[in-house]
Amino acid sequence: MQLIYEGHACFRVISQGQEIIIDPYFNGNPLAQHRPEELQPNLILLTHGHGDHLGDALAIARHSGATLAGQVDLLNALDHHGIESIGFHLGGSFHFGPFKITMVPAWHGSSISSSQGALYGGVACGYIIDDGEKKLYHAGDTGLFGDMSMVISRYGLDCALLPIGDFYTMGPQDAVTAAQWLKAEVVIPMHYNTFPLISQDPQQFKAAVEQASDSRCVVLAVGESYQL
C-alpha cells in the first residue's frame, strides 16, 4: 500500500493498481500541487461535508468516472447525479477492488455550504482501509475520543493518519495520546499548516510521539509518498 500526501487531510492510497483519494481539497488549498483534472482515482472517500474536505470531489468524480463514497446522509445532500456512489454508515464496510473499507466515528461536525446556507451533512467519520496486507486508519477531522482505544485500536493498525492542527481538530498533545491508544506501527500527521489557525511544528510532534509511544512517526511533505 502506497500513500501520497496531497496536503491538509488529502491522501491518495494506491494498491494493486487501484487508487483511492480521501478528502480531495485542491482548489483554494494553498498547499495543493495538483489540479483536480489531473487526478484519476477509482474511488473517492469523504470524511464529512466541510469545504476543505468535500473539496473537488464532485468535479473529480465526474471527469474521472470515480465512485464517490461516504456517509449516506452526506451523499443524499449532494448533487451527485450521474456519479456512481456508495452511501453507507458508521460501523459498515464495503469492498472495492483490493480494499475493504470500514467507516468509523469521528468527533466533528458536518455541513455543506450552499446558496441557501449550511445544509445538513450527516455525521463526520473516519475510515479503516484494509488491502489484505496493510491496515490504514484515516481519522478525519476529530477530537480525541475514548473509542480510539476501545474500538479502533482492535483493527491492528499498520498506519494512523492523525490531525494535529488544533482549533478545528485535536492538537498535538491529544494526537500523541491518540497514538498511544491506537498502537499503530506508523503515525503520520495531517491537517496542519494549511492556514495560520492550524500552524504546528510536525517535527516536535514526531519527537513527542516517539518518546511517548512505540509508534514511529513519519512526517510527509506535500507530494511525498510512503510505502507501507
Structure description:
The chain is of the alpha/beta class and 228 residues long. The chain has a single domain (2-227), classed as Metallo-beta-lactamase, Chain A (4-Layer Sandwich), CATH 3.60.15. The protein has helices spanning 51-54, 57-64, 72-77, 147-150, 172-182, 202-212; strands at residues 2-5, 11-15, 18-22, 43-45, 67-71, 85-88, 93-96, 99-105, 111-114, 117-120, 125-130, 135-138, 159-163, 186-190, 216-217, 225-227. The strands form three sheets. Strands 6-5-4-3-2-1-16 form a seven-stranded mixed β-sheet. A hairpin with a 2-residue loop joins β9 (111-114) and β10 (117-120). α5 (172-182) packs parallel to α6. The longest helix has 11 residues, at 172-182. The model has no long low-confidence stretch (mean pLDDT 97).
Keyword list:
alpha/beta, Metallo-beta-lactamase, Chain A, 228 residues, single chain, seven-stranded mixed sheet
Instruction: Return the domain count.
Output: 1
According to CATH, the homologous superfamily is Ribonuclease Z/Hydroxyacylglutathione hydrolase-like
What form results from the Cα inertia axes?
globular
> N-to-C terminal Cα separation, in Å?
5 Å
Main sheet attributes: strand count, strand direction, barrel closure? 7 strands, mixed
Mean pLDDT across all amino acids: 97
Beta-strand residue percentage: 25-35%
Task: Examine the coordinates and then state which fold CATH places here, giving the name of the CATH topology.
Answer: Metallo-beta-lactamase, Chain A
| Count of beta strands | 16
Using the CA coordinates, give the radius of gyration.
Answer: 16 Å
Spell out the helices and strands N to C.
EEEEHHEHEEEEEEEHEHEHEE
Q: Give the count of helical stretches.
A: 6
- Name the structural class: alpha/beta
Summarize the amount of helix as a percent range.
10-25%
Strand order of the largest sheet: 6-5-4-3-2-1-16
